[in-house]
Write a structure and sequence with these properties.
Cytochrome Bc1 Complex, Chain A, domain 1; seven-stranded mixed β-sheet; 38 helices; 24 strands; 43% helix
């Protein structure tokens, strides 16, 4: 589960105005803090060395939690790569106290399995290996009878936890949860037990899931290019010599003993941190954490000596081949965390690319010299790297794209950037982080990075001060020293990857899932009663204040009491389905100037003000958005309205835009996600004529006129629309500004009747297949299930929790835990967002091609016969209730929740009805819902995979197979 992080400097340093250290006198637990820290972070160190980071945020009664272990794939043994990542999976499997109903008998079998894996690992004869694996499979079936699969996830779900997951990267393994604040002690009780001991139960089925994850990586061209760049950047360091997922040979020859050794070495309290943000009392929380985690014993952590890389003295070039569109990557290597490189590259990285007014933004993307591009700086413990990505335009070679990107680096070296950019970058970083303070997830991410990278909180403050004092000359000196012919260049070519590795499936016998079984620990856990949180339901009439703009447009207002940022939206219920030329007009706008400003100058002006703008058109709606610093609100609205009303035609820009749209369409055909979730999904719902294929033809595109598109833009706010403002300014001031600047015609144009595509009846099974060069198959099962009915909302909420969503669901347990048939599998009953749309039933499987038939059969069986597990149902019901109890619709989400209800035809908070209805649900009601809405439905099966590898006999058993060509899927 690889995760790329921005440097902690870019994330955290903007929060502080002064630095210092403070010790708590009133608490027995001393902590470090920094004066002026907007996050109010308190850092504790327990007696066993465990770090605790706490940031209080009272927005909602929930706490986001990370348990971070300062170890990742960098510490994998060279002959056992992928170990840290596989261990991450196994930490969910329980201990000797939970996830087992008979530990004494189970441990004997687990020891036998472990010994067999060592024998398997040390045997080179293929037939002997196969024989040994047969023994492993047999004994694993016996051991599984004592296991309670997913008991950790079930207990966590019963708390009302969300986002339960984990990820591993080069320097860290992090375990994630989002729990109600009133359940924090039960969370600590469970987590402290989980990290006290490692038990490798259900090992071979989970190993199969990791095989699947490896194979999915072979279908990911971005991951392959990233790994190749890392290999060349770090030829001797583990960052480049081994991947987080590991090699196929190592995955096929695991060692349970080595995994235990790794856990015992690195999963120790003095190498871990508990990172929390949310509605908590710091003193009480740290005392509670000490009670549960203080018993963990500290150990000496071995210092792994890693090779020091020699300077790169020449360009390292490689080619990666895969089915997706072509691009280039350029990567430079820098020093590790707490170095000057970290500070400089956060600044330089944003000078080069920031999504608005960086050199790449203005000189390459804005001027339409490349199709698209981006860049980011990634700081790791031992090294960092700057990664640049760019796609070619039609007829443009990858070599030409490379030269254009490198030319922007040269401009940094020569100081060919405007002086105001340095201050503007810092200002916009601060704006970005101001917004991040609203999110517990982002707060926790910032603190986790600081722990993993060993950034002292005071040093973080000083780093920001240092960034603000860096001069243009210092930037140039640094760039000339660090940027030369010392980069890695990856050419991503389109084609068949004949070297794609694949981990073959071993023979696995499905194991029993003890659905109703509980460990003694879990029984005790469930018996502990937490004080429930009272739900809070909104009265939208008081939550949203209103005013009028020009007596024609309704202004909705919600006050931002967290920081000094705002979001302004103009919402027009007129989308691209009604007017396809509008889609092009929206894409055209960023390339247009006015009678006063060029397009580039507008981007600069917005960036200087700490603002950004966007116009987005969906099938049935248009959003015009301005956001940023509230201090710039008045200037920003004036500038934005000036652009909308005074944009000037640019024939050259339109010509390039049309060429880019046509090139993007070609690239889109090489994107499996666009094929499956875009084209195939719409084809299955509506047939060949659908919202996805209803686009301007190439002929229509070439006949577009600049003047017509500009008039389309200028007409946007002449239609009936709504304005939403979320910010710190008072309503009266916002209303005054908008009445002055938001010019309206004498009469607003009524909205046209919405164009609606007729949904297909889906009255018989049908298989749609698209050929795509990939190791795996991805499949979606889709069926209609009646019209919108608000009475189905409560039961579908619990059904999705119980049956198809999350690690403790029926689908996940059956498809992955029991049968090891897929890495990813889920199902859901989907309620529409408009009353004239239908409900749909979805199921997804991502699996190896040779397992497609078996996996599909297993899923179809589940969709026709729902297992009834009463304890699991009650946990799902409780989780749904606790989610509503601790959910707070706040800030600008108030607008969008109200909008969702209004679209369905209601003007009140529907969660109150749902909450009351969920309390009355029972298993017979759930079964009746399943039998009526899920069972026996004829499905449309949407399948993407290699035609040469796909089992068509298995597909023919599902229904008539129709192979679609890409022009049928995309409409061009």
């Amino acid at each position: 589960m690889k995760k790329i992080y921005l440097s902690v400097c870019a994330l955290a340093i903007v929060f502080f105005s002064a630095c210092g250290e403070k010790k708590a006198e009133e608490s027995k637990y001393k902590y470090e803090t920094v004066d002026g820290d907007l996050l109010g972070v308190k850092i504790y160190t327990l007696s066993n060395g465990l770090k605790v980071y706490i940031s209080v945020n009272k927005d909602e009664p929930r706490v986001f939690t990370n348990i971070a272990v300062r170890t990742g794939s960098k510490n994998d043994p060279a002959d056992c790569t992928g170990l840290a990542h596989y261990l991450e999976h196994m930490v969910f499997k329980g201990t000797s106290k939970f996830a087992t109903i008979d530990w004494e008998n189970e441990k004997v079998l687990l020891k036998q399995i472990s010994d067999l894996y060592e024998k398997h690992r040390n045997t080179s004869d293929a037939e002997e290996k196969k024989k040994i694996y047969g023994q492993i499979d047999s004994i694993s079936g016996l051991a599984a009878k004592f296991a309670v699969a997913n008991e950790y996830d079930k207990m966590m779900s019963s708390l009302g936890a969300q986002a339960t997951n984990a990820y591993t990267s080069t320097d860290q393994t992090v375990y994630v949860n989002d729990v109600p604040s009133n359940e924090l002690e039960k969370w600590a009780m469970l987590e402290s037990e989980r990290f006290s001991e490692l038990v490798l139960r259900l090992f071979h089925t989970e190993l199969e899931a990791v095989y699947e994850e490896f194979n999915r990586g072979q279908d990911n061209d971005f991951r392959k290019a990233y790994y190749k760049a890392s290999e060349l950047l770090f030829p001797t360091h583990p960052y480049g010599t081994q991947t987080t997922i590991g090699t196929s040979d190592h995955l096929k020859n695991p060692s349970m003993e080595r995994i235990h050794e790794y856990f015992n070495t690195y999963y120790v309290p003095n190498n871990m941190a508990i990172v929390l943000s949310g509605d908590i009392d710091p003193d009480k929380t740290v005392a509670m954490l000490d009670k549960y985690f203080g018993k963990l014993k500290a150990k000496d952590i071995p210092k792994k000596e890693v090779p020091q890389e020699q300077p790169l003295t020449q360009i390292q070039t490689a080619e990666v081949v895969g089915p997706s569109a072509e691009w280039i990557n350029i990567a430079y290597r820098f020093d590790g965390s707490n170095s000057d490189d970290e500070v400089y590259m956060n600044l330089i990285g944003n000078l080069i690319y920031n999504g608005q007014a960086g050199l790449m933004d203005l000189n390459l993307i804005q001027k339409q010299k490349i199709l698209r591009g981006n860049a980011f700086y990634n700081q790791m413990k031992d090294y960092g790297f700057y990664y640049m990505n760019a796609y070619p335009k039609s007829g443009q070679s990858l070599e030409e794209v490379k030269d254009l990107v490198l030319a922007e680096i040269e401009k940094i070296k020569k100081g060919e950037f405007e002086d105001w950019m340095l201050q503007a970058v810092v200002k916009n970083l601060k704006l970005e982080m101001e917004k991040y303070t609203e999110s517990n997830y982002m707060r926790v991410s910032i603190m986790t990075d600081a722990f993993v990278l060993e950034n002292d909180w005071k040093e973080v403050v000083e780093t920001f001060n240092k960034m603000g004092t860096i001069t243009k000359q210092q930037i140039m000196d640094f760039a000339n020293k660090k940027f030369g012919d010392n980069y890695v260049l990856i050419y991503k070519k389109s084609g068949e990857d004949k070297n794609a590795a694949k981990v073959e499936k071993p023979k696995i016998t499905p194991v029993d899932i003890n659905r109703e079984a509980q460990s003694t620990f879990a029984i005790k856990f469930d018996s502990i009663q937490s004080e429930r949180v009272a739900p809070v339901f909104l009265d939208f009439k008081t939550a949203i204040q209103t005013a009028s703009i020009g007596d024609k447009v309704n202004l909705q207002y919600v006050k931002n009491t967290t920081n000094k940022t705002f979001s302004l939206y103009y919402v027009i219920d007129r989308g691209t389905v009604d007017n396809r030329a509008m889609e092009m007009a929206v894409k055209y706008l960023p390339y247009l100037g006015t009678s006063k400003y060029s397009a580039e100058d507008l981007k600069k002006e917005f960036y200087k003000l700490g603002l950004s703008f966007d116009v987005y058109a969906s099938n049935d709606r248009m959003y015009v958005n301005l956001s940023g610093l509230d201090d710039s609100f008045n200037e920003g609205v004036k500038l934005f309205e000036h652009l909308l009303s005074d944009c000037q035609p640019n024939e050259d820009a339109l010509k390039e835009l049309i060429a880019d749209v046509l090139k993007s369409r070609i690239d889109n055909k090489k994107n499996k996600g666009a094929i499956l979730n875009g084209g195939l999904m719409n084809y299955a719902k509506y047939g060949p004529q659908n919202p996805y294929t209803s686009i301007l033809s190439e002929k229509d595109l070439l006949n577009l006129k600049s003047e017509d598109l500009v008039n389309q833009i200028k007409s946007i706010t002449s239609f009936e629309h709504l304005v939403n403002y979320y910010g710190s300014k008072e309503l009266a001031e916002v209303n005054t500004t908008l009445n002055s600047e938001h010019k309206l015609p004498a009469t607003l144009t009524p909205l046209p009747e919405r164009k609606v595509f007729a949904e297909l009846p889906m009255d018989k099974p049908q298989v749609y297949f698209v050929d795509y060069d990939m190791v795996q198959n991805e499949m979606i099962m889709l069926s209609k299930s009646g019209a919108f009915n608000k009475d189905l909302m409560p039961v579908s909420n619990v059904f999705n929790q119980y049956f198809g969503g999350g690690l403790s669901s029926i689908v996940f347990q059956e498809i992955r835990e029991s049968k090891a048939l897929a890495y990813a599998a889920y199902s859901a009953f989907s309620i529409p967002n408009r009353p004239d749309f239908s409900n749909y039933v979805y199921a997804y499987i991502g699996t190896q091609s040779d397992k497609l038939g078996e996996a599909t059969t297993a899923m179809v069986d589940l969709m026709n016969k729902m297992p009834e597990a009463n304890k699991q149902f009650e946990d799902a019901k409780l989780a749904s209730l606790k989610t509503i109890e601790t959910e707070r619709i706040i800030k600008e989400s108030i607008f969008w929740q109200f909008d969702y209800y209004k679209r369905l035809g209601f003007d009140y908070d529907m969660r109150k009805e749902q909450y009351e209805a969920i309390q009355k649900l029972d298993m017979p009601t759930m079964k009746a819902f399943f039998d009526t809405n899920i069972k026996g439905k004829p499905y449309h099966y949407l399948v993407v995979g290699s035609k040469a590898k796909t089992d068509f006999n298995a597909l023919k058993k599902l229904g008539e197979v129709k192979e679609l060509k890409l022009n049928e899927v995309f409409g061009y």
